[in-house]
TrEMBL record:
Organism: Etheostoma spectabile (orangethroat darter)
Family matches, as Gene3D superfamilies: NAD(P)-binding Rossmann-like Domain
Any one Pfam family match given in the protein's UniProt record, by short name: adh_short
Keyword presence, Membrane: yes
Superkingdom as given in the UniProt entry: Eukaryota
UniProt cross-references to InterPro entries, sorted A to Z: NAD(P)-bd_dom_sf, Sc_DH/Rdtase_CS, SDR_fam, SDR_family_member_7C
SUPFAM superfamilies for this protein: NAD(P)-binding Rossmann-fold domains
Protein name stated in the entry: Dehydrogenase/reductase SDR family member 7C
């Protein structure tokens, strides 16, 4: 009896509502019915497709003491971090005995400790949300080492190993870790034409003119990797890729080629 009474009451209220609408002017009826729908649809559209304003956070990997403050500032920008692209790099080309310890530390701060510290600082938020993507843009010297770049290659090997280990650790939380290894970013066309050609053997593995990566190619590969969530990408022509495999399967051959290249470069300079 009670349920029936409630149902009768609901029907009466519904019928009275429609009766009121019928008595109202058609313009007001249209306004009452459409305005809430328009408001809801507009809010939903802006929620789905609106973009957040860009924010710039100054970061100096040479000042590791400032990292906690920077990490807090990054998290306060939007409340969370979905994608982190690590693209820092500092390079020195010189014989190993001529590079100071201070320079070694500066290279390691910028190429290894900085990216690793930033990633570790932002990981707790990604883990709690069980989503996120870390992308390391690294040199091909995270895979192979070329003479006269000892400290640089050491830092690139270190950061490569860090993110390779991290990939397995955070997979259970739904976090993706990708690495992109490239030869180097190509200079402008004018610079390529005026650059002197190197006569060393190992310059074929690390030569600027024929084997560089354009800015467009690098940017396209970064976006593609973020979309497909590939774990590892090597952007390089065939010869550097062959050098990577030679280092793994024929190390003595690789070492001999590198040593011969150094001798050839020294002989060319003396001519």
């Amino acid at each position: 009896m009670v349920v029936a009474g409630e149902m009768d009451s609901n029907v009466t209220e519904t019928e009275s509502f429609w009766a009121i609408l019928q008595e109202m002017d058609s313009v007001w009826v249209t306004t009452v019915l459409l305005v809430p729908c328009v408001v809801v649809l507009t809010a939903g559209f802006f929620y789905l497709y609106s973009t957040f304003p860009c924010k710039l956070v100054l970061l100096d990997f040479g000042d590791m003491d400032s990292m906690p403050e920077v990490i807090s500032e990054i998290q306060e920008c939007y409340g969370c971090m979905d994608i982190l692209i690590l693209n820092s790099s500092m390079k020195v080309k010189a014989p190993a005995h001529s590079v100071s310890l201070e320079m070694d530390k500066l290279l390691m701060d910028n190429n290894y400790f900085g990216p690793a510290t930033l990633a570790k600082g932002l990981l707790p938020s990604m883990i709690s949300r069980r989503t996120g993507h870390l992308l390391l843009v690294n040199s091909i010297q995270g895979k192979i080492a070329v003479p006269f770049r000892t400290s640089y290659a050491a830092s690139k090997h270190a950061v490569q190993a860090f993110f390779d280990c991290l990939r397995a650790e955070v997979e259970e939380y739904g976090i993706s870790v990708s690495t992109i290894n490239y030869t180097f970013i190509s200079p402008s066309a004018s610079s390529e034409n005026t650059a002197p050609a190197s006569k060393s053997i190992w310059s074929l593995v690390y030569s600027r003119k024929p084997l560089g990566v354009s800015l467009d190619e690098a940017a396209t590969e970064i976006i593609k990797t973020l979309s497909t969530k590939r774990k590892e990408v090597v952007i390089a022509p065939s010869l550097p890729k062959v050098a990577i495999y030679a280092r793994s399967f024929f190390p003595n051959v690789f070492f001999a080629v590198m040593a011969a290249g150094v001798k050839n470069a020294a002989a060319s300079e003396n001519m």
